Every structure is written in C-alpha cells, then in structure tokens.
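WARN  no MSA supplied for this record, continuing single-sequence
INFO  ligand: manganese (II) ion
INFO  echoing inputs
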Amino acid sequence: MSFESLWADESAIGRSPDTGGYTRGGWSPTEREATHWFLDQCAARGLTVESDGIGNLIAWWEPREDPGGPSGGLEAPLPGVVTGSHLDSVIDGGAFDGPLGVVSALAAVDQLRAEGFEPGVPIGIGAFVEEEGARFGMPCLGSRIAAGVLSAEKALQLKDRAGVGLGEALEKAGLDPAAVGPSPLLRRMGTFIELHVEQGRGLTAPVGVASSIWPHGRFRFTFGGEANHAGTTLMEDRHDPMLTYAMTALAANKQARLAGARATFGRLSVEPNGTNAVPSQVTAWLDARAADTATLESLLAAITKQATERAERDGTTLEVTPESVSPIVDFPAGLRDRLVNVLDGAPVLPTGAGHDAGVFSDAGIPTAMLFVRNPTGVSHSPAEYAELDDCLAGVDALAAVLKDLAK
Ligand code: HGY
Ligand code: MN
Ligand code: MN
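INFO  complex generated
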C-alpha cells in the first residue's frame, strides 16, 4: 500500500467533524480503533505481533530462516531494529504526532520489500500506548512501564478524569492488569528509531535527526482559598485562589521568557466552579521545560517562590506536587551520526517535545529519532500539518536507515 492510502485510512480514524482534531486517550474507543487498524495492517503483511501487559505492540518482519545465519536457525529470538511511535493523542490533537511514525514504518517496510531487501536481523514496527499521558496524566506511560521506569504498582494507582483506574481501562481493552510490568518486548529491541513530525519551526529541510530531548516535567499547583459570595464579599475580605493562580500564571510566563525556557498552564480545575462564588480551590497543571536540567530547576524554583509569596499576600495556600519529570536525553552520537551519514548530511536539532524514544534511550537502548518538517511548527492542535512530499521523504529516509541498520 502507498503511504498516501495508508495515511488516508489511519488519519480518518477518530477525526472530529467539528474541529478536525483527534482525542485518542489511551485505551479509549478511537485509540483502540487505530490500534486494531494497525494490527490489521501487520496481519496483512504477515508480521508476527507481540504485545505486553500494558498493550505495547511490536510487529516483527523476521529474516528468512537461515541455518547458517546469526541465530543458526535456532528459535532464539534475535534482537532486531525496531521503529515506530504512538497512536494515541492529546485532547483535540493533530493527525501527525505519533501516527506519522507508525504509518511511515509500515510504508518503509513495504518499500524495502518491494525492492527485494532481505533483513539480516528482524525489523520490528512498534506502537506504544498512552505516550501523551492525556488520559492518565503520565507521559510515555506505556514505554515507562515497559522500561521498568514506572512500577506497575504506581501505574495501577493512576486514574483518569472520570475516576476510572488504569486497571479497569486495561480490562475493558481485554488486557490483564496483573501482566503490567517491565516488558519482554524490550529484550528484542536492539536499536530503536522513532520517526516523528517536528513540533517546532526549527527544521527547514524535509528530514532532520534529533540530537537531544529537553528535560521537562509536569507539576500540580493546588491553590486553597475561602469559598464566598461573589456579590457580598468585599474584595479586601477575600482569600481568592483564582487570584493567586492568575498571578502565578503571569509569573511563570515571565520567568520562562527570561530563561529562554517553556512554561505552560494548559489545564485548570476550579472548585466549586460556580459563576457567583469565590472559588474554594483552584488546581493548575504546569508543564515546564528547558534546554538543561539546571535551568529547569531554577525556573520551577522561581515560579514556586513567586506563587508562595503571592499566596501569603492573598491569604491562600499553595501545594506544588511533581507529577512526572523527564530527564534530559542526549541521543548516542555514534548512532545519530550514522543516520546523518546515511541521509547524506541531514540537519541535527534538539526538541522540546518528549517521546518514547527518550524513555528507551534513557533505558540504555541505542536510540535515534528522525524528524519530518512541519511548515508551521504547530502541534498538539488540529492545525498540525506536514506536506506530503516531506512525509514521503521521511519514509525514504526511514527505509534507508532500516536498510543500513538491518542489513
Ligand atoms: O508532551 C510532549 O512533549 C509529547 O508530545 N508527549
Ligand atoms: Mn505529543
Ligand atoms: Mn508524539
């Protein structure tokens, strides 16, 4: 199948008729529909699919049995070259973030087979679950569990916004919560290559290679105040957590600009959320990122300090809880440069976006990323876009890299 027809099929799944965006939370109906589409594509190609307890998938293109080959024809599963990404999305996200890497992997395998390439080691296509953490709040949930970075016990404590626990969601998806844990899939992941749409404006060529992933974290700010009447409570008598939050959001924006970093409050929960009542509590989630760990830490300290000082002035309370922290990832230079050579000198650039590739690299698996140009840089939005020619260049690049690594 051509990339175009694969893309037309996959990107039709769960697209909102109103916004054109996608809301594919982990194990949600539309994410499961996309996963089943992927499984059908793997079956149509005769790939053998392995799954783990959390629902991560790797579909294998095994080398022809060669008694004289590396495994001597034995059953011992040879480590292979895995490429892939994720099929879940943020709330009302774009079509490319995640699925482009999975669809490009299918198209690259088709391309290699069409030219008669025979892999010397297995080639796997991976789809990892809940990478965005949009449902259970933990980014790269599937890959963190697979890599043993997040324990099954901690993961199974996670609940979605409707109060549904991860275990219940897994059971509904036909998975067994008791099987959640470090993944056997990683034993065969000799190298991991993730192709992903670029999520900034830094890439001016069709395809680039990642140098690093910025350290980043999610921090829950809970502002406590005093519920009261909107009409009868004097302004000076209020302990209004919304005011403390608002000043904190302004401070975060300023501190991030000063540090050349990123700070975003994109999610808010107000109790009791009434139009004519001063709130009793405001919960705000800060997504903070910076080019290095020291800058990220000082950014968070500066924001927390100013929020604390403002809470004292407002007579409100503040509690800051780290929900997830992702360390800086510097992809191994040797593998990075090998991809640059295979691609005759593709540009190398860092990213402020987190990826499963970061988790696998951090877990010691030789990992690299390919980026496909995003003309506007817009992402985590229905407006996210990449030109077809650049996507096709991405497939060619991925096929060339797989051929080089799996020959
Ligand atoms: O949020 C991120 O950095 C990524 O899109 N999961
Ligand atoms: Mn994303
Ligand atoms: Mn992504």
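The radius of gyration is 23 Å.
INFO  checksum written, moving to next record
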